[in-house]
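--- STAGE predict ---
source: upstream dedup step, 1 unique chain passed
mode: sequence only
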Amino acid sequence: MNLAKKPPYRLAGERPLDADMVIVARGQIDRMVADLRDTEGPLPERIHDVRKGLKRMRGLLRIVRYADEDFYRAENARYRDIARDLAPLRETGARDELIGALKDRFAAQLDDEPFLGVERALANMTPAAHAETQGAESLLAQTEERLGEAAFALSAVNWSLTPKGAANTLAEGVAKILKTLRTSRKTARKAPGAENLHEWRKAVKYAGYATRLLRDFWPGDEKRIRKDLASAGEILGLVHDIDELTRLLADKRPGPEDERLVLTGLLAAWRGELIGRLDPLMDDVLAPGAKAAGKAVARAYRKGTINPLKAE
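--- STAGE serialize ---
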C-alpha cells in the first residue's frame, strides 16, 4: 500500500488559477504513478486508487473547463480513456466485495454459504490469475506512460487570467456542475434505471470534487455538503455495482437457479432501500441554485484570493 503523503486537492487562490490548477494536477498524477509502482499492494486496490485519481483529475478539469475548453475536452477524454482501459482489472474485486456486503446486510436471513454455487460459477468465468497476468502488468506500464504524456500537456497551460476572469471561470464551472447534478437527479427520480442512476452518480462525484477543490470559497456549510455528497456517491456506487451484478446474473445465469433467484431478489430489495436514502443528501448542495452558487463562489474567491495580477 502506498503510504506517501497525499498531495493537496484544493484550489486555494494563493496563485493565479492556471498555476494553481497545474500544481494540483501534477500532484494527482504523481500520486497515481506511485500507486502504479506500488508492487507490494494488491493489484485490484492499486487499480481502484488509480481510477479514483483519474476521477479527481476529471473533476478538476470540470471546475476550470471554461478557461480553455479545447484543453478541457482533450484532457478529459485522455483521463476517461485511461480509466476505461483499467476498468476490467477492477470488476472482479468489486463484485466479490458486493456479495460479501450483501451477505452481511441479510445475515439473519441467510445460511452460512447461501450463494456458493453462484460464486464458484462467477469465479470460473474470470480468467485464472487475471490480476497477475503479464497483460495486466503491461497495461499498468502503458498507463504510466500515458500519465507522463498528461503531465507534459500541463506544461503548455498559460491562461493569464485576472482575478475577475478566474472567478468568472470558476463560477461557470460550478454552475455547470450543479446544473448537471440537478438534471440527473430529476431524470433518475423519474426513471430509476441503471443508466440514469449511473449518470446521477457521476454528477454527484463531480459535485463532490468541486466542493473539495473550492472548500475555502463554497457557500453554506461546505463540510456538511461534502459529507452528504460523499455518502450519496457511496450509495450510488453500490447501486451501480448491484445493477452490474444483476445484469450479469440475468445474462450469464451462473450457478444454480434457486441461488440466483434468491440473490437477485435480495439485490433488488437492497437497491430500493439504498435509493430511498438519497434525496435528503441532495438538499443542501442544491438549495442555492446553480447560478447563485457559482456567483457566491466567485465572490468569495475574489475576496480571498492572493493574486499578483491586477483585477479588472
